[in-house]
Design brief:
Length: about 300
């Protein structure tokens, strides 16, 4: 079944030629014309057979939902008090510029954050040596419709078309699923590099907050700093004593506290980390962020267990 659309709402009508519980895949062939989009999706520029990725969250609403999760506004529940960050600046009579910030409490409907699906795609090769991007096998059943819809919409948002197939595309025996991090040494150049990342990824109003938080983490980091690339774009890891502090620049996200074995943990999907409680703590960007982070940077022993 070929699909040429921007997105779909109901996958059922695109699955009519397949039997109930028949295994299908969402696929698209890699060509010279779409190679640039394949790389933007997160795959290596060499298009390596066996490479597995979660598509970059920055491409579209669908890829963001898959990689970062989904926020549902619960208007069926009573409102709650939340905090909104606000920063402003002014010029005095001597033309000196001053700035200040605060967290403003406000009433809103509760948010329910659904964990990311982290659905993956991989590169395979057919008998004619043509390369394809393909999802994992997934059964054509109503309980899988939401996942099938998300798989289709991710590919459509990137390429504008896709195929649903039931052919047995042979998966490579050896798969490549490497964590993509760039290791930076501490120093002024690294600080400015990270500041530039923040300015690119975060809205202007919140950029100063992240820069202030990052400067504090850099100051207390005693080892090299890791900056995420491709599907980990927007994540920065700081090693502070016995903890790895994983800062996220993504909206509605948080700072994660891991142990120093963060590289092994980061090979898992975000959903696997959260569901298995492999993080020590999760700290949201509210007024008490600095107070909570300080306790980890000081290596306080009583903050060594999972807080959730």
């Amino acid at each position: 079944m070929k699909i040429n659309r921007k997105r779909i709402r109901n996958p059922k009508k695109y699955l009519t030629e397949f039997k109930e519980n028949e295994e299908v895949r969402v696929v698209i062939e890699v060509t010279e014309e779409n190679k640039r989009k394949v790389i933007e999706m997160g795959f290596d520029s060499q298009i390596v057979v066996g490479e597995i990725i979660v598509p970059s969250s920055s491409i579209s609403k669908s890829t963001y939902e898959n990689a970062e999760g989904k926020c549902i506004i619960r208007k069926d529940l009573p409102k709650e008090t939340a905090e909104r960050y606000w920063e402003w600046s002014w010029e005095d009579w001597g033309h000196n510029v001053h700035s200040d910030y605060k967290y403003i409490p406000y009433e809103r409907y509760p948010r329910e954050y659904l964990p990311p699906k982290a659905l993956e795609f991989m590169i395979v090769e057919d008998n004619s040596k043509n390369k394809w991007i393909t999802s994992r096998k997934i059964k054509n059943s109503q309980e899988n419709y939401e996942d099938i819809k998300l798989l289709i919409n991710m590919i459509l948002s990137i390429f504008g078309k896709c195929n649903i197939v039931n052919i047995n595309m042979k998966e490579p025996i050896k798969t490549v699923r490497s964590v993509k991090w760039e290791i930076l040494r501490s120093g002024k150049q690294t600080k400015e590099r990270i500041r530039n990342i923040i300015r690119e990824e975060v809205s202007q109003n919140r950029a100063s907050m992240y820069i202030r938080n990052i400067d504090k983490l850099i100051e207390n980091s005693n080892e090299n700093i890791a900056v995420g690339t491709q599907e980990f774009k927007g994540y920065i890891v700081f090693i502070c004593g016995k903890y790895a502090i994983l800062e996220s620049l993504m909206p509605n996200n948080a700072t994660y506290i891991l142990d120093k074995n963060w590289e092994e943990i980061s090979k898992l999907t975000k959903t696997e980390v959260l569901n298995n409680k492999m993080h020590i703590d999760r700290i949201y960007h509210y007024l008490n962020w600095e107070e909570k982070i300080n306790k980890y940077m000081k290596g306080d022993e009583k903050y060594g267990k999972n807080k959730e």
